[in-house]
Here is the input.
Amino acid sequence: MREDLTEDSLAQAKAEMRRDLMRKRAALVGLPDQGVMTQRANDRLAAVISQRCAGDPSQVVISGYMAMRGELDPRSFMSAHPGPVCVPVIKGKSQPLEFHRWTIDGEMVEGAFKAMIPARADPLVPNALIVPLLAFDDRGYRLGYGGGFYDRTLQKLRAAGSVMAIGFAHDAQHVAHVPIDKTDQRLDLIVTPELVIEP
Here is the structure.
C-alpha cells in the first residue's frame, strides 16, 4: 500500500485492513495464554514509562483507556502507576479527546461508542498517552477505528508541548504497512507482550 493512493482507494484499503484486524484480534480473546501475555505487556509498559519519563513518576500524568472489543487491557499498569491517571472522553464528532481522571474504585458510566468513562468529570492533560489500535507498523503508524480522535488529539497536544504516544497492542496486530494520509499521527513507541518498537 502506498501513500499515493487516491482518497477513495486509501479509504477502501483502511476499511479492508480494519475488517481483517478486527477478526484477527477477536480470535485472540479467550486464548489460554492471554492473561499471561496481557500482564507481560503491562510489565513492559511500566518499564518503558519508567525509563522514558524522567524525574518523579508521581508527577507524570498517564492517559490509559478502558479496553473493549479485544483491545489489550492496560488497567494493570494504570492501577499501579503512582501518578495521576486519566482516560479519554469523546466530546463530539471531529473534536479532540478530553481526558478525565480515573481511579480504580471510581464510578464509571457508559460514554460515546459504549466506552466506559468516569462518572465525574475531572479533566487532566496527559504527559503520556497509552493508545489502543487495530494495527501498527514499524514506522510507528497505527490504524484506528476511523474517527480520527487520537490523530486530532495528538496534533493538538504536540502543538502545545511535549507528549509521548505509546501504542499498546497484541503482537498479532503488527502489519507490514499501515495505509496513511497526511492527518495520521505517528506513535513514539509501540509496546506489545513481546516487543518494544521505537520507530
